[in-house]
């Protein structure tokens, strides 16, 4: 399977437009069309549903997209490894969520690099589920995620425990005396799906089923500017917002009749841990 064709498919799934995809890849639109037709012929299923205005992925296309991305990433990783194998004694490949990286991992990586100047370190930021697939595809030597991996041949140990706190800007006195669980649905809640498992379920269950949030994002660090500039509130890891609490730009909101779970992260590797 030609990875150039896979790259075309991944690009088209993002742009959802043949002309924009062709422009981004610097090829003719007919080239994009032919590559997709050949790919669909090879896999034996329609991957895209085409209309005059847009392109959408079929269920088969949605499933195939994750595999296409992994195949491309494995090719790129192997090429990088070959190009650096004679320059460094060893390259450690680390996969981590952005929140774990920002809150806990940086000092560990810095200490490792100082102790091992002849080693290269490659850090990839991603989501927990993608990182778990990546380490099983041998893309990483170690990953730090919010999801455990209970599988033979892998070590999965707790890495860091964090408090989940409800915060808002100090620019207003909203909920200064605290908030009750039943009042959350009527608040200006800024939703961040930064974690899964118990924490994600806890936050979702605070709101009615299929609740439509006014603002959603999947990266906790990117949510903070919106909190600082609005009357919104949100649950975030205490270590992530600690600098803002210290500076007095964010404050905690007391919880009156409920309590959040702890945030647990994990270090997962196939052999001896690196940090």
Helical segment count: 9
Sheet with the most strands: spatial strand order = 4-3-5-12-6
Biggest sheet layout: 5 strands, mixed
Please tell me how large the radius of gyration is: 22 Å
If you average the pLDDT, what whole number results? 88
Q: For the record, give the distance between the C-alpha atoms at the N and C termini, rounded to a whole number.
A: 37 Å
Beta strand % = 15-25%
Structural class: alpha/beta
Unreliable parts? none
Helical coverage, percent range? 40-55%
The rough form would be described as globular
* H/E topology pattern: HHHEEHEHEHEEEEHEHEHEE
Number of strands: 12
Please give the structural blueprint.
Blueprint: H1 3-15, H2 18-25, H3 29-43, E1 48-50, E2 55-57, H4 59-84, E3 90-96, H5 98-115, E4 119-125, H6 128-136, E5 142-145, E6 155-162, E7 164-169, E8 190-192, H7 197-205, E9 215-217, H8 220-228, E10 233-237, H9 238-247, E11 250-252, E12 263-269
Parallel strand pairs: 3-4, 3-5, 8-9
Antiparallel strand pairs: 1-2, 5-12, 6-12, 7-10, 7-11
Descriptive overview:
The strands form four sheets. Strands 4-3-5-12-6 form a five-stranded mixed sheet, with helices on both faces. The chain has a three-stranded antiparallel sheet with strand order 10-7-11, covered by helices on one side. A two-stranded antiparallel sheet has the order 1-2. It has nine helices and twelve strands. The model has no long low-confidence stretch (mean pLDDT 88). The protein is of the alpha/beta class and 275 residues long. 43% of the residues lie in helices and 21% in strands.
């Amino acid at each position: 399977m030609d990875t150039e064709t896979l790259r075309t498919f991944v690009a088209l799934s993002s742009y959802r437009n043949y002309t924009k995809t062709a422009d981004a890849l610097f090829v003719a639109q007919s080239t994009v069309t032919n590559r997709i037709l050949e790919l669909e012929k090879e896999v034996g299923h329609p991957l895209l549903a085409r209309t005059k205005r847009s392109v959408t992925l079929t269920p088969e296309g949605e499933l195939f997209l994750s595999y296409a991305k992994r195949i491309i990433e494995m090719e790129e990783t192997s090429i990088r490894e070959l190009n650096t194998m004679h320059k460094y004694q060893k390259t450690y490949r680390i996969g981590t969520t952005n929140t774990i990286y920002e809150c806990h991992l940086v000092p560990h990586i810095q200490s490792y690099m100082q102790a091992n100047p002849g080693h290269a370190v490659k850090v990839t930021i991603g989501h927990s589920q993608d990182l778990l697939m990546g380490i099983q595809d041998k893309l990483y030597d170690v990953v730090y995620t919010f999801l455990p991996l209970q599988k033979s041949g892998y070590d999965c140990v707790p890495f860091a425990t964090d408090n989940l706190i409800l915060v808002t800007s100090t620019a207003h006195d909203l909920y200064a005396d605290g908030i009750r669980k039943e009042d959350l649905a009527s608040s200006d809640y800024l939703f961040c799906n930064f974690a899964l498992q118990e924490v994600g379920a806890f936050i979702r269950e605070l709101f009615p089923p299929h609740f439509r949030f006014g603002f959603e994002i999947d990266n906790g660090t990117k949510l903070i500017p919106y909190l600082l500039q609005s009357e919104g509130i949100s649950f975030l890891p205490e270590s992530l917002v600690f600098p803002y609490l210290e500076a007095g730009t964010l404050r905690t909101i007391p919880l009156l009749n409920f309590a959040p779970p702890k945030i647990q992260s994990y270090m997962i590797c196939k052999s001896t841990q690196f940090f």
